[in-house]
Amino acid sequence: MTDSSKKPPLAGIRVIELARVLAGPWAGQMLADLGADVIKVENPDGGDDTRQWGPPFVEGGDGENLSAAYYHSANRNKRSVTADLKTEEGQSLVRRLAATADVLIENFKLGGLVKYGLDYESLRKINPKLVYCSITGFGQSGPYASLAGYDYIVQGMSGFMSITGEPDRQPMKAGVAIADIFTGIYAVAAIEAALIHALKTGKGQLVDMALLDVQSAVLANQNMNYLISGRAPARLGNAHPNISPYEVVPSADGYLILAVGNDNQFRRLCTILGLDGVAGDERFSTNKARVVNRDEVRRLISTETLRWQKADLLKVCEENAVPAGAINTIEEMFADPQIKARGLRIDLPDAAGNVIPGVRTPVVLSETPLRYERPGPRLGEHQEEVVAELEALERAKREGKSSP
C-alpha cells in the first residue's frame, strides 16, 4: 500500500498517545497514516477500553482474540506500550517518551494528569517544543470544564439531535460517534498548525479541543439559519431546510435520494417524471417557492417516482444530469465499483501473519503518500522495542550526539 520511494508527510514526527476510545485515537491514527511514529501508551490492565467493545472480535488464525473490531477502527499503524500511571515507573516512562516527542495527545478529564506530573505545564519544562493536545468533552474553561464528556450526550447538547430525525418522532443521534470523529479530525488540523509553529520557533503549545465546541460548530448552515432568522431549526426527517426537493423519495422497489440543487435541475426532473407545467408554476418555479411549498412538492414528486423501478429512475436521472443516488447498506457500499476503484478497503497483516481489514484515511497525496503498514497493535506489543529506542536516544544525548 505504500510507495517506499516517497516518504509520508509526517515521517520523523513522534506522537505519544495517552488516549482511549475514539476522539484521541482517531487523531492518532490519522497522524500515523500520515507517517508519524505514534506510540500508544495503554494501561497494562486491559488497555484501551475498545479492545473489549464487541462483538464482533477479530480472531487470529489460531482462534486467538485480537481485540474488538471497534479497537481496530482507530488504532492502525501505531506501536503499543503499557504504563501504569499510578506508579513512579509508569510516570517515568511517559516523561521519557514526552522528552523525545513532537506531539502528545491525551483525553483525560480536566486536570486528570496533574497528579501524575504529566500535564502540559509539567511536560513543557521537559520538552519546550512539545505540542500537547488535550481532548475533553467541554474544554479547559467554562462551567462544564470539569464534567466528563460523552459523544452521545454531546450530540444532544449541541443541538444536532434537535435537527435529526422525523418531525413527529424522537430526536435521533447519528449512526456513528460523529462528535468524537469530527473532534479527532479537527485535532489533527490543529496539531499540524501547532507543529508548523513549533518547527519555526522551537516553542510548543497547548491545543485545547472540546467535543461540544466541535459538534456545535459543525452544524454549519443550520447554525446560520438560526442566527439570521432567530428561529431554531426543527427536524425535517430526510428533507433539507434550504433546498427542495432534496430528500428521500419512494420508488416501486425501494427508496432513493433526490438532491435537486437548482431550478434547471428541477425542470429536468419534471420532464423525466412527466410533470408537465409544474416547473413553470409560480409555486414551484424557484427554490425559494419550493421550500415554502415543500409538502406539495413532495406529494407531486413521490406520486410519480412510485411508478418507476429504482434502477431505471437512477439511470435516467444520471443521463439527464439530475442528482440522484442509491441508499446503500454498508455491505453494498464496500461492493460499489467506485469504492473499490478508490481502494477504501485495505487489508493489513500483523506480525503473526493474521490479515486484518480496515478502511484507509480518505486522503490522497501525490508526492507524500500516506502509509499503511500494520493493523492495530496488541497490548504492549512494542514495549521492548520502544524502551530500547529510548535508552539509545538518552545515551546519545549524554554523549552529546543529536541522534543514536
3D structure, described in words:
This protein is of the alpha/beta class. It folds into two domains: 14-218 and 338-399, Rossmann fold (3-Layer(aba) Sandwich); 246-328, formyl-coa transferase, domain 3 (2-Layer Sandwich). Helix content is 37%, strand content 16%. It has 15 helices and 13 strands. The protein has helices at residues 23-33, 69-72, 88-99, 120-126, 151-157, 178-201, 211-217, 220-229, 263-273, 287-292, 294-305, 310-319, 330-335, 337-341, 383-398, and strands spanning 14-18, 37-42, 57-59, 65-68, 79-82, 103-106, 131-136, 205-210, 246-251, 254-259, 324-326, 345-349, 355-359. The strands form four sheets. A six-stranded parallel beta sheet has the order 5-2-1-6-7-8, sandwiched between helices. A three-stranded antiparallel beta sheet has the order 9-10-11, covered by helices on one side. It has a two-stranded antiparallel ribbon with strand order 3-4. Strand 12 (345-349) and strand 13 (355-359) form a beta hairpin. Helix 1 packs across helix 6, helix 5 crosses helix 7 and helix 6 crosses helix 7 (211-217). The longest helix has 24 residues, at 178-201. It starts with 13 loop residues before the first strand and ends in a 6-residue tail after the last helix. Keywords: Transferase. It holds the Pfam family CoA_transf_3. GO terms for molecular function: CoA-transferase activity. This is Crotonobetainyl-CoA:carnitine CoA-transferase CaiB.
